[in-house]
Design brief:
heterodimer; A: 8-stranded mixed sheet; 8-stranded mixed sheet; 16 helices; B: mainly alpha; globular
């Protein structure tokens, strides 16, 4: 028995060892994987599907490298060898070209895009009026659209897969393969093996969100398959003053607060599985964080004379029909914001839409000497507040744009209550100044940002200076609004900190600010600014919440292990964080009123929600199994047929011959007649 | 390789053995059992040569070592199955319906076990390639050319046929004590296998032409050994 067991263990070990040996396989010489490709994928709303999907198992097409539109036309008209996959520079990916490709979808089985180091004048695939279906009732989209260059391709149902390949070396490999096998003797292409690509990005979800949600929830076996997931993540919110008063164990909620909301958005999107998002949303986000820090520094400690609080909110998922703000509003309407405690509890006040006196949203910002304040319904209060902007920042040209509201979270609140007073601060009047809105090219060079790494040369003519300036203007005006003359007006923004914040979100997540607020190591590449699906949470909201807590928190003393286990009552959060950005070792204990709230559309949590009501955002993202691109030689049809013919003929002939030999074996093989030989004499 | 190519190559490599199986083996259960047993013995030889290859770590990189070692094991197991079959003859005679032909004509057992050897070696040499190759691509991007699969199939077919012929010659050699026949099998097996080593240089014609010659010569030899002659061939064609 013992020996038997020993053999079993021995065999298992041997087999484990053998499994680890990877021999060279024929496959490795046949295929070349194209690395660093990002795919376009599929999303669905209540009525449509958008984005791309390959065929199940991958779409195969012959490479055609195009430098100009003429090259593309050539292959569309003269291609004879089946389906093609053109490789286009992004510059050529215009509406006209895209329509041409859609029209020839039986000749095109996929598309590869690459940057080609060319200067682009514009590249934005959002619609001209983003989120128009969920805007307030008054039509606010100007003629030509906010996003004038918008092609709307982001919302098109593209009939073939698209991959974006940034790495020039990979493109060069594909180009060389094309030149070697495909380019010469184009007319005779169908007679020979050709360089081809296989694009794999099959999407399980189809049709629309109700359909794919129904399919996801079907319990057909023990291992249910999700075909799509709702988009969603978390909103980040924080307040300037605590929401309660009194000593630690006998605190009372402050119920009569009025609130000013200072908000910005936290997400962007792009046609591919990669985002940049420098101007939208990072400029607004950085400006909000800077303003929050300034406001904390200049405003006095809370006293009963202060009846207005500032609520900082960073909405997530706003790109997809205002997911974050709709959910926040939904929670407010049900008395579940900031917590799900019962209404009129004696721990925390609940915040309602009626408590909000002013809503200020920071939209896209870019270098200039003016700021546009968009106001839908002008009121004396709003005018008064805009007057403060002008007083506190005489150099900045504050321009009022009446009866106008660019796409912003404010739309959600005005849709619910027409009397909400709000304004949107942006760098544009009736047309975005950002030619790369919601695209991969909305990067640092789009906002002329250069990391200064602590140098004191950051001028007011840089994006850092401009954002700091707007933040100062906002903080001073807000402080005066809530605390009158008790504000410390000499506080100025720390431009190095602004610089660091941009660096954190756009270039290196392991920057000084992030190291100051937490001690973990973040990924090396910039954090994704795409909202993602609800069951896979991003790093971004958490790290932004920590940063906001650091900026608006109260310092309680030196850091200790007692800090984070202090009395909590649903509202305070305690953190050990570095005191100073230049000396990360010195730690303090911070108490902050900052938290996350759900940013998943109410459509997915209401039982029996009527999908046709168009009340809430209904975006979901299809799930997929694998994504990738590989290059190989595709055999010609003639070669395939010859192989099959040779094989079949051999088989049939051999059948005939073997039958013939077998039936005549008694004549053919003159085997000895053993019986005639005496074997046992 | 596409589905069409896959079927083409499979038909080419396994079509003739399939025909042999259908017309000459399937009628008699004992033949099927012997075929499977022979295939199993070939597998055992592969296992042993793999273990030796695995243990001899410094020689792993030399393909020649593996090839020669494997040939010796294969021929060793051919001898083993020969001995077993000759011992089992009396038992087999009792269970088969067709004992007259099976036992009287000793070449039938040799042929069946040779085909078993060949089928299993063919399956091992080609199935890996075919399985890897199931997809939209053909060879030639980084090395080789598009004829690779066709050539591989022909190689496989050649080796299946060779194993069958070798089986007949080898068994007869031991039956009659003819050392030349046994030696012939060993030498041609070495030659044919070492020819395939030239495939690394991708000059397929250099291996394929001699290999086909070896198959033809060995086939004729086996034909002679099995009792065939020019006259019997003529007779059999004339009767038609």
């Amino acid at each position: 028995m013992l020996i038997k067991n020993f053999y079993v263990v021995f065999l298992i070990f041997i087999s484990l060892y053998i499994v680890h040996c990877n021999a060279d396989r024929i496959k490795d010489t046949m295929y070349m994987t194209i690395t660093g490709s990002v795919a376009c994928y599929r999303r669905m709303n209540a009525t449509h599907q958008i984005g791309c999907s390959s065929k199940r198992g991958g779409s195969v097409g012959i490479i055609h490298y195009c430098d100009t539109e003429t090259d593309l036309d050539f292959v569309l008209h003269n291609g004879t060898a089946g389906e093609y996959i053109p490789i286009l520079p992004t510059k050529l990916f215009k509406t006209s070209v895209a329509n041409k490709l859609f029209k020839n979808k039986d000749k095109i089985s996929g598309l590869i895009l690459h940057p080609n180091n060319e200067e682009l004048s514009h590249f934005t695939h959002d619609t001209q009026c983003p989120n128009a279906l969920f805007s307030s009732n008054q039509s606010t989209c100007p003629e030509g659209g906010w996003n004038n260059f918008g092609t709307g391709l982001l919302y098109a149902d593209i009939p073939f897969p698209i991959f974006y390949v940034e790495d020039e070396n990979q493109i060069k490999q594909m180009k060389n393969c094309f030149l070697k096998y495909n380019k010469d003797a184009f007319a005779k292409q169908s007679d020979r093996s050709l360089c081809a690509l296989e694009l794999k990005s099959f999407m399980y979800g189809t049709t629309n969100t109700p359909t794919c949600q129904r399919r996801s929830n079907m319990v057909t076996n023990l291992n249910p398959i999700k075909v799509c997931d709702p988009l969603g993540d978390s909103n980040v919110w924080g307040t300037l003053f605590p929401l309660e008063k009194g000593p630690e164990n006998n605190s009372q909620p402050i119920k009569n607060f009025k609130y000013i909301i200072l908000s910005a958005r936290l997400d962007t999107t792009s046609l591919f599985e990669k985002t940049s998002g420098a101007e939208s949303p990072i400029t607004g986000l950085v400006c909000l964080l800077t303003a929050a820090k300034l406001l904390k520094e200049m405003s006095p400690k809370w006293n009963p004379n202060i009846t207005t609080n500032v609520l900082f909110v960073l909405f997530n998922g706003e790109t997809y029909d205002y997911i974050g703000s709709q959910r926040l509003l939904y929670d407010m309407e049900r008395g579940e914001f900031p917590t799900t405690l019962s209404i009129n509890n004696d721990i925390l006040p609940s915040i309602h839409l009626d408590n909000i006196t002013l809503f200020i949203e920071l939209s896209q910002l870019s270098l200039g000497n003016q700021i546009y304040t968009h106001v839908l319904n002008n009121t004396p209060d709003l005018n008064n507040f805009i007057g403060k902007f002008r007083d506190y920042n005489p150099e900045m040209n504050v321009i009022l744009v009446p009866n106008s509201l660019p796409p912003s979270s404010l739309h959600t609140f005005i849709r619910a209550n027409n009397t909400v007073q709000g304004m949107v601060l942006a760098d544009h009047q009736y047309e975005y100044r950002n030619p790369f809105y919601n695209s991969i090219y909305d990067n640092v060079s789009n906002i002329d940002y250069q990391y200064q790494n602590g140098s004191d040369k950051i001028g007011s003519d840089s994006i850092q200076g401009y954002v700091g300036n707007i933040a100062l203007m906002l903080a001073r005006s807000l402080c005066e609004q809530i605390a009158g003359n008790f504000c410390n007006q000499s506080t100025v923004p720390d431009l190095n900190l602004v610089d660091e914040l941009f660096h954190c979100y756009l270039e290196d997540p392991n920057c000084k600010v992030h190291k100051a607020v937490q001690k973990g190591t973040l990924p090396k590449s910039p954090l994704s600014l795409y909202v993602g699906v609800e069951n896979v949470r991003n790093f971004l909201p958490n790290i932004v919440a920590l940063t906001l807590a650091w900026f608006t928190g109260e310092r309680l003393g030196p850091s200790s292990s007692n800090c984070t286990i202090q009395h909590r009552n649903h509202i305070y959060r305690y953190y050990n964080m570095s005191t100073d950005i230049d000396n990360l070792e010195k730690m303090s204990c911070y108490q902050a009123t900052v938290n996350l709230s759900e940013a998943v559309s109410p459509a997915f949590i209401i039982d029996g929600y009527d999908w046709s009501s168009n009340k809430y955002s209904s975006w979901s993202e299809s799930s997929w199994n694998e994504m990738g691109v590989r290059m190989f030689l595709k055999p010609s049809k003639i070669h395939e047929r010859i192989t099959l013919a040779v094989g079949s003929i051999t088989m049939i002939l051999s059948c005939i011959i073997v039958y013939f030999i077998h039936s005549r074996s008694h004549i053919l093989f003159d085997y000895p007649d053993i019986d005639s030989v005496p074997t046992n004499c | 390789m596409t589905v069409m190519e896959l079927f083409g190559c499979t038909f080419l490599a396994f079509g003739p053995p399939f025909a042999m199986f259908i017309f000459t083996i399937i009628q008699d259960p004992v033949r099927i059992i012997i075929l499977i047993a022979a295939a199993f013995f070939w597998l055992l030889s592969l296992l042993l040569s793999a273990i030796v290859w695995f243990i001899m770590a410094p020689l792993k990189t030399y393909l020649v070592f593996g090839v020669v070692c494997s040939i010796l094991f294969q021929e060793g197991f051919r001898l083993l199955i020969y001995r077993i079959l000759r011992k089992a003859e009396n038992g087999l005679m009792k269970i088969t319906d067709d004992h007259a032909t099976l036992i009287d004509n000793k070449h039938i057992l040799a042929y069946v076990s040779g085909l078993g050897f060949g089928l299993m070696s063919g399956a091992f040499s080609l199935c890996n390639v075919l399985a890897d190759a199931l997809g939209p691509a053909t060879m030639g991007l980084q090395s080789g050319n598009e004829m690779f699969f066709l050539i591989s199939s022909v190689h496989t077919l050649c080796f299946i046929l060779l194993h069958t012929f070798w089986g007949i010659i080898f068994f007869n050699g031991f039956d009659t004590g003819n050392k030349i026949q046994v030696g012939y099998v060993l030498i041609t097996h070495l030659i044919a296998s070492c020819l395939t080593l030239l495939n690394t240089f991708q000059i397929y014609s250099a291996t394929l032409v001699p290999l086909v010659c070896v198959v033809l010569v060995t086939g004729l030899y086996a034909f002679r050994v099995a009792g065939g002659s020019y006259i019997s061939l003529k007779l059999c064609l004339h009767l038609r």
